[in-house]
Amino acid sequence: MSKRKTIKRGHLLVGLVTICLLLLGIIFLIRQTLPKLFSAKATNGITEIAVLGDSISNMGIVSANGWTIQYKTDVDAQFQESSQIINLSTNGISSQQLLDSVLNNTTYRQQIAAARIITLEIGYNDFFQNRTKYQNGSCGGTDNQDCLRSMVTIFNNNWDAIVGQIKLLTANNTNNVAIRAFDIYYSVAGVDQLQSAPYNGQFYVLNPYLTQMNTHIAQSASQNGFLFAKVHSAYNGSSGAEDPIAKGYILPDAIHPTDLGHTVIASLLKSIGYSPLTPPAIKDTDGDGCPDVKELSSDWKLGGQRDPNNRWDFFDVPVPAISATNWNLPVDDPRRPKFDHIISAADAQAVFAYVGTRKGGPPNSRGFSYDTNYGYKMGLTNDPNFTDGMFYDRTPSTDSARFWRTGPPAGTINTQIAQLEFSLFQKGGSDCR
């Protein structure tokens, strides 16, 4: 009896051990699998913005009105989803320290590889630390500028290595990746121009070195196919001598941006767009000047209740009317025709200018011709067979309840077409801006 109890206890012990091992195995599998489940989460468009930099980037995240927060807000609006900021910025670091993190920090490398937008800002501390050395006479060399020459070389090499690693880490990303950078502003350009101690007009020595660094950033962007925001020009002007403190862009610490300064940075980044990414908010499948997301909305006065695959149902035209005298004006000339993405009185006037023209016909009394293709030469269309008259030619909607949904060209532009455009304007127009 005692032997049987011993055997039963032994079997029970083996069973308990087996159960424990199974539980440990399950726990191990859960611990291994859960991170993968979350890290492999399917995404739709933009989800991660990796922000690399120093305290200028870090404050852009932690400040309520920081440039990074403002940039994220625009990304969310453009891509129609809530993005996530991945903070890879650290206060006080130099380009060498950022490079070390990009090379050796596993978290940095994983987050860069997974990001869809990457912003890069670095170099302020390289410049400011060596400015201090020059100011106190410890820069080295007979002219006290050795550290400045070395600074430019080291920064340029570090910048190239950081960009090289970003491109390497994102090479296997199956999605397009937008890399954005901005150059280095001179926060104390104003005081450094003072001739009194301790500044002694040091701006005129230091600024050419900063210019070399910023020039390298611009060249790197061009060579590596990414865009950068010209923050230095906005803060310091084309000469580099303007005082951003006097503009209200810099905090009393003489280093970091104010709310206004953050807004300037964010606005510059937003203005250069998100290529090679195509946000849903600007995707225009049919090329009629009204984004798909607006054509699918409910308000026709904001471009809605239209077909994003119908080139003709949004009657926005180049204004002023395309002519032989204005098509080749400079891009920034207000007299150069362009789409303004809104149906207005100016559109009706432009259509009226083409009244009396027809496909294969002569110019009208105002000198406009249906068959010229200045619009193609200007880049308003990619189709060489798309004539200028086609921009201003439509047929009325076949659906009286949706009168704003105009139809394809008829080949003749008469007063009825001009009146149709003016009627659309009078009834509220359509604003796809």
Characterization of this structure:
- With 433 residues, the chain is mainly alpha-helical.
- It has two domains: 224 residues, SGNH hydrolase (Rossmann fold, 3-Layer(aba) Sandwich); 150 residues, no CATH class.
- The protein has 15 helices and five strands.
- It has a five-stranded parallel sheet with strand order 2-1-3-4-5, with helices on both faces.
- It is elongated, with a radius of gyration of 31 Å.
Kindly provide the radius of gyration, computed on alpha-carbon positions and rounded to a whole number of angstroms.
31 Å
* Number of H- or I-type helical stretches: 15
- Content-based structural category: mainly alpha
How many separate domains make up the residues? 2
Question: What is the share of helical residues?
Answer: 40-55%
CATH architecture type of the largest domain:
3-Layer(aba) Sandwich
Write the CATH homologous superfamily of the largest domain: SGNH hydrolase
Q: Largest sheet, if any? A: 5 strands, parallel
Compressed to H and E, one letter per element, the order equals: HEHHEHHEHHEHEHHHHHHH
**CATH domain topology of the largest domain:** Rossmann fold
Give the averaged pLDDT, no decimals: 86
- Portion in beta strands: 5-15%
The first-level CATH class name of the largest domain: Alpha Beta
The dominant shape is elongated
Spatial order of strands in the largest sheet: 2-1-3-4-5
- Give unreliable regions as ranges: 1-8, 20-45
Please report the distance between the alpha carbons of the first and last residues: 91 Å
